[in-house]
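ok trying again, last paste got cut off:
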Amino acid sequence: MKKNKGIVIIAAVGILVFAAVLGGLFLTRNIGKSSSAISQESADKKLEKMVKKIEATEVPARKEAVELSTTSLQDELPDIGTYPLTVQPATDLYVEILSSPEKAGDGTDGWFNEVAQKFNQQEYEVNGQPVSVAIRNVSSGTAVEYISSGKYVPDAISPSNTFWGEMIKAEGVPVEMLTDRLAGNVAGVLLKEDKYNALMDKYGAINMKTITQATIDAEIIMGYTNPFASSAGLNFLVNTLYTYDNNNILSDTAVEGFNSFQTNIPFVSYTTMQMRDAAESGALDGFILEYQSYANLPDLKREYIFTPFGVRHDEPLYAVGTLSEDKKQLLNMFKDFCLNDENQKLASEYGFNNMDEYVSETPEFDGDTLIKAQKLWKENKDVGTPIVAVFVIDISGSMDGAPLNMLKESMINSMQYIKSDHYVGMVSYNNDVYVNLPVGQFDLNQQAYFKGAISDLIATGGTATFDGIAVGVDMLEKALVEHPDAKPMLFVLSDGDSNTGYSLNDVRDILETYSIPVYTIGYNADITALEKISSINEAASINAETDDVIYKLKNLFNAQM
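nice, full thing came through this time. structure:
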């Protein structure tokens, strides 16, 4: 590679990192490989020629002091307006409810919204005052973070299951359960029909013990969602631990069992949609999903068999904080309205109220135990399997000014969520490609070089995205020679445009052959272009705006790194 041309690094058109992240998500190097992938030898030769032609410039490393203190959750969370109201209040006296997405979204995920709108049309009163409700669609994990941090405290919350209410209580916030069920739902494992039948023949039943053992024995390829953000993911984590020790899910026995299971998990997704896409590609034999979603996806119902697990997801409703008597009365009035025959019939039409015969064998856990289980997952999900990650950062001219400043702030903040036993390198690109930081263990020394490289970025020039990706892949492959058991990841931060150098078609077969997941985070981006890059190996593509990119990067790194 060339020595420094004297160019000050030109810096970052956007942000694209994961998953999901939650999720997030990484696949082993031989899973889901496309039939269009070329041989390893051909990929090696092609990549070598491309990198030689690109002639990346090495940038002298510079250290910058690393802050060992962590950023507060309140500072990381975006303004609540990032999650707009899905139902507006119609009166001066109203209650706002943060609701999980499966009932406060669009189409068949919009039951709660539809009921709230009908409620607001009834012209109900409390003590002579007209009343209404407001609904805000926020995932259960994120809603709990808003409440527990004090960043934003609504009048009520309706998460997917009761775990989240217990976690709010453990954080010292007053909560009162008004009902443990607004609409019936369960979480489940979906297995391809042939795998389901094979496991039934061998084990005689499909349950968490069967799933964990079949995963350990490599009989199935299993995926699940990030337990920091996803209700089904948290439920799955807790039940996996419970399978190994039903007296103490935090015991050494439970942790050892989880580690043996997690070793054979290639896929922790950032979002449920990302996991669905991976299932459709054939990369997974099994994954987790709520029955309400399963009921509304006929293709899944034809190919996968649903087996419920864990605590029920019956959409409980909690009052939060100290409410006035009028607001308490209003919340109870709305609860009763949701539970009337007409609205329960509507819930059934939208996929809820199925599998009412299912009774969980999993006990309820206190919030402190659940919080510790999440931390245990973060610490143990990749024990013994380091990650080699290269960050590929777009520094073309469109990032000049506020966008680049935000990119720097979010990347520096997110460093704290990368484990020190992983290996990290960095590439940036505009018309040309620059190696800002060779791959090295992310100890304090490498962190200081990483922060210095980020801080020195400046923006100018064109956009050779796939040149940058090619150099990043080359760095990964060389690092894997030294660390053959590591999991490779590529993080691309960009606006999605590419106007010079190689194209997606030039690098697609290389990425397919190496099975490297490419996480993309688009900052005010052409998200379709980025999704195409990430979809090659079922990685996550996140569309971030200025006010929420810090939080999204934090979630991705926390889940994947």
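cool. The longest helix spans residues 465-482. The two ends are 29 Å apart (CA to CA).
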